[in-house]
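Summary of Year 1 activities. Much of the first year was spent building the evaluation harness for sequence design. The harness presents a backbone, in tokenized form, and records the residue chosen at every position. We chose the following record to illustrate the format because it has been used consistently in internal testing since the harness was completed.
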């Protein structure tokens, strides 16, 4: 490569059809670390605050891309003047990150910059260059891919729902929803761009927090029913490994149902989808109005000037943008709802359901269930899709909860299936509540669990009951007893959904013998699994309270789990604790239980010997 100034050099990686280029990246080694530059088009120089172009951009909020046309946020001359172009000197807003060898950000510098030497590449071309040593930009792009993978792994280890499956074309967006990538984006070039932009936005937000500078932060909170992002990601990884497309679609529907939209505001509330303490949008000022506002504030700060947006004005911008985005979301949903309604009515009359793509079939099914009218052949086609594992959660729940007439035999089959897979019942409870509430479900007000130890039985046993509340109504499940809390919850939820559907209760209790008080053997048989043995001691009241705590370290492909178990012996007041490590939670728990069991049984043996000596 020719001689270059790394601070003024960059690669623009975009779709082949992109005309509004607003970011470029560069990375290279420096000593025992790395330097990263993200150049952002300096759009603020071309759009006067309060001018006619700014007023129109404020009204439009963002560029809208449609298959037939693109409606730009800014006038075409401004887009052309502000876009980054190779072969000319471009004024930019530059983000310079200094990294250590492990990819940790050591320092951040923000301010006006220049892009003098640059290249244009598509995502696919960048991916090819990163893997082709003969390409003149190979060293830079290979290092960029390494940086992107490091940033991705760090967020995943922090619990972010960050996922890319380039084979199937599924990825998560910043709000934790599964989206399908265009075929041109299913490569490592797409990951490079995404992770560089996330890093830039995160570091800009962190800098603003340190400087106590109000900007438009991007805040996101997960719905209460969304589940642990780490567990969802593990489920995604598992489905990706199996290649089960139907499972992907079902999980995608579930995640969409519990997703909440991110919003803009001048105060920080964290971004849970990305697992970042602070985040903003600053890397697309040609296409998003909040990015342009943030750039104006950052440029003023870099030049030692006051913010062009007093706090009240910034609040007004945030409220306007949030309102417009929500209006567009509702309008889009209503448009497609009306369009789908007309199309669905036509399909329902055609009665050829086997030939329908899944989305159209799902609309016909919802249409029929809501009206209590089942077109001939629809129940049979639904059964066929169920047998082929095509039926997704929303449609399964609709038939199970509300199907009547020709659907009755299928509902009975579904009830038996749930008895074999009770873990699905909690998702159906959420569907039922969402239908009643017309929106997200709260674990604090709508779903209430009571899970506790069940005394009076041999071995560890747990009781679970679930109650749902909506409006002025409350529905309670019966209590269910099982050997572990998770299964007790599953069985309680299973009993509840069967009652909601008006079907026989397929749930069950674990077979348990009442505890017989009196002389009994204190020590558990040596053949019993260590974790189960410790639980038995806890159930007998010989050690309490028994607590298990887990932590995880290491990269995603070499994770090490640590389990710490502890309690105290009521008879002596002695505390007992142990720690175990392993590649999975279960192995770590077994190793910790093995050590804790020794402590407990030694203490018990000493106690028995003491009593014998007194005798």
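For this record, the design step produced the sequence shown next.
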């Amino acid at each position: 490569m020719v001689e270059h100034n790394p601070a003024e050099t960059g690669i623009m990686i975009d779709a082949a059809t992109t005309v509004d280029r607003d970011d470029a990246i560069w990375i290279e080694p420096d000593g025992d670390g790395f330097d990263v530059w993200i150049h952002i088009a300096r759009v603020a120089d071309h759009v006067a605050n309060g001018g006619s172009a700014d007023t129109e951009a404020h009204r439009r909020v963002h560029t809208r891309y449609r298959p037939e046309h693109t409606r730009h946020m800014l006038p075409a001359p401004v887009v052309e003047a502000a876009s980054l172009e190779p072969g000319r000197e471009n004024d930019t807003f530059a983000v310079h990150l200094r990294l250590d060898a492990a990819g940790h950000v050591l320092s951040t510098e923000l301010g006006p910059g220049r892009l003098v030497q640059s290249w244009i590449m598509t995502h696919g071309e960048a991916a090819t260059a990163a893997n082709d040593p003969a390409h003149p930009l190979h060293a830079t792009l290979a290092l960029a891919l390494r940086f992107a993978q490091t940033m991705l792994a760090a967020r995943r280890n922090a619990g972010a729902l960050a996922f890319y499956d380039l084979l199937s074309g599924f990825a998560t967006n910043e709000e934790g929803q599964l989206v399908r990538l265009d075929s041109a984006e299913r490569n490592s070039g797409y990951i490079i761009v995404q992770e560089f932009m996330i890093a830039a936005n995160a570091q800009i937000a962190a800098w603003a927090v340190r400087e106590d500078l109000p900007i438009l932060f991007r805040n996101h909170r997960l719905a209460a029913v969304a589940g642990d992002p780490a567990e969802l990601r593990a489920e995604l990884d598992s489905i990706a490994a199996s290649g089960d497309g139907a499972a992907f679609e079902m999980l995608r529907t579930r995640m969409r149902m519990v997703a909440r939209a991110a919003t803009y505001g001048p105060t920080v509330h964290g971004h849970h989808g990305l697992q970042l303490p602070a985040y903003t949008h600053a890397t697309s000022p040609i296409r998003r109005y909040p990015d342009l506002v943030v750039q104006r504030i950052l440029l003023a700060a870099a030049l030692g000037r006051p913010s062009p947006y007093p706090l009240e004005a910034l609040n007004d911008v945030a409220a306007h943008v949030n309102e417009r985005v929500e209006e567009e979301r509702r309008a889009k949903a209503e448009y497609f709802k009306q369009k789908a309604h007309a199309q669905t009515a036509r399909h329902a009359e055609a009665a050829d359901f086997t030939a329908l793509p899944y989305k159209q079939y799902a609309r016909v099914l919802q249409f029929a269930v809501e009206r209590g009218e089942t077109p001939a052949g629809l129940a049979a086609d639904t059964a066929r899709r169920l047998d082929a594992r095509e039926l997704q959660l929303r449609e399964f729940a609709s038939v199970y909860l509300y199907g009547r007439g020709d659907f009755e035999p299928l509902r009975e089959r579904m009830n038996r299936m749930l008895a074999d897979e009770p873990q699905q019942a909690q998702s159906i409870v959420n569907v039922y509540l969402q239908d009643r509430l017309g929106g997200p479900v709260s674990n604090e007000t709508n779903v209430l669990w009571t899970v506790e130890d069940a005394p009076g039985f041999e071995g560890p046993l747990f009781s679970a009951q679930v109650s749902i509340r909506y409006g002025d109504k409350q529905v309670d499940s019966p209590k269910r007893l099982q050997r572990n809390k998770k299964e007790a919850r599953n069985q309680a939820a299973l009993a509840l959904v069967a009652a909601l559907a008006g079907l026989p209760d397929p749930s069950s209790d674990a077979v348990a013998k009442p505890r017989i008080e009196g002389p009994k053997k204190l020590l558990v048989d040596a053949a019993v699994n260590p974790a189960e043995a410790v639980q038995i001691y806890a159930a007998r009241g010989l050690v309490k309270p028994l607590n298990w705590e887990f932590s995880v370290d290491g990269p995603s492909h070499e994770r090490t789990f640590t389990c710490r178990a502890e309690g105290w012996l009521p008879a002596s007041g002695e505390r007992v604790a142990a720690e175990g490590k392993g590649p999975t939670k279960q192995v770590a728990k077994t190793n910790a239980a093995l050590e804790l069991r020794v402590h407990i049984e030694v203490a018990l043996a000493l106690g028995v010997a003491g009593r014998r000596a007194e005798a």
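The longest strand covers residues 105-115. Quantitative recovery figures across the full test set are reported in Table 2.
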